[in-house]
Amino acid sequence: MRRILTRPAFWFFLCVAVWGMALPLSCLAQETSEALRFAVFPYKSPKSVIEVFSPLAARIEKRLGKKVLLVSATDSETFLEKSLAGEYDLALPSVTVYYKLLPAGYAAIAKGVPAFRGGVIVRQDSEITTIEQCRGKKIAAIGEHSYAGYMFFKAQLDEKGIDSKKDLDIQFVGKLDTIIYGVLNKKYDGGVIRLDTLDMLDFAPVKDQFRIVSRSAEVPQFPFVVKKGMDQQTATAIREVLTSLSPDKPEDLAILKSLQIKKIVAATKDDYDPFYDVIKKHAFYTHH
Q1: What's 128's DSSP letter?
Q2: pTM for the whole thing?
Q3: Please, which pLDDT band fits residue 34 given cuts at 50, 70 and 90?
């Protein structure tokens, strides 16, 4: 099989150099105390997040009439720390991290639909056909904080009497594209990802080179949340921008496709309570 090369190193070093900082929508824009900070959970590479969310941030900026700074963090722990410190006005956390933001007063205002699933992927030529055959294999996963990118897989292993830490070589790498290219290039025997990632433009050409060994239950899309104390007028305007995106409009459809959703609907904490019952006993909550 031909090895698939990852993106040029230039982009990696450029993005890493700026990722801890705010990412203005305009090169001439300067950060001000009045700017709204829109934080995206670091589930993809910095370059990918910038490409995907800049158009949406621009829509919000136009509606509010104030600068929107697209920001993130280097990893999930830093994202959580900055969120709890109140550094973000609008955020898109992973579902599992969202529950840890509730004590800080963040409120869900919208979410994408439909839900998605996690899955264990291997190469088409892999000998692995069941999760039991993952014993002794090197498996790349997002992290302990991710349901689609690890939690469900650990639960399935537990049911089979397999210790994810002792019986497998689990590598937490944090980024979906790192896992996909790593599995494809035989750095890893398998990977745990949200499966709809394979439908994205970047990965569609290689999608058929993978097999899915196992799937998770449905996972609600990441919630859009606003900081405690945000005035109702601003929160409502942001929700209206998000929920007004229509698949019938080419520009809106492009944004929705990049977000791996069909539309965005209004949401509240109540929409996420049922899923919390599924995962609340996981070590991410009981041991952290």
Answers
A1: -
A2: 0.77
A3: confident
